[in-house]
Amino acid sequence: MSGIALPTLSFDPEIALTALASGRLVARDGCLRLVGRAGKTRALVIWPKGSRIVTEGRGAAVILGNSGQRVPIGPRIQLGGGVGESIPPEALSTPLPSQCAGPYFSAN
Q1: Helices then strands (H, E): number in the chain?
Q2: Hey, which residues does 17 pair with through a beta bridge?
Q3: Lower CB density within 10 Å: C or N end of the chain?
């Protein structure tokens, strides 16, 4: 899964966001996005500080930096967090690639 942008927060949030998002986690245009049942793209996922992508056999997963939880790429998943139309650049550990536009879902 090299070449996939994995935008992460540059800080540890002080609050836990309580929205729930579900869908398939897919790589589109070099970004990981949640996709709904009808195939409509829902949001670019912003991951907790320290998260990383790992290869697992023929698949891949995101390992969350705050908990070590494994989130598989491909099947339907549920994520806790919060949604927004924008994210301040200073909140990210690295700049977002131009193809990774919002809306955004910040995963807990």
Answers
A1: 0, 8
A2: none
A3: N
Measured at the alpha carbon of residue 77, what is the angle toward residues 75 and 79, in degrees to the nearest 5?
150
- Cα separation, 13 vs 62, whole angstroms: 19
Tokens of 46: 């912003």
Query: What is the predicted pLDDT for the residue at 13?
Result: 57
pLDDT of the residue at 61 = 94
Could you check whether the bond before residue 95 is cis, i.e. omega within 30 degrees of 0?
A: no
State which amino acid sits at residue 21: A
Query: What CA–CA distance (Å, rounded) separates 85 from 74?
Result: 24
Mind listing the pLDDT tens digit for each residue in 8-21?
766 555 555 667 88
What is the C-alpha separation between 107 and 98, in angstroms, rounded? 20
What pLDDT is stored for residue 75 in this prediction? 92
The full DSSP string for 16-80 is ---EEEEEEEEEETTEEEEE-TTS-EEEEEEBPTT-EEEEETTEEEEEPTTT--EEESSSEEEEE
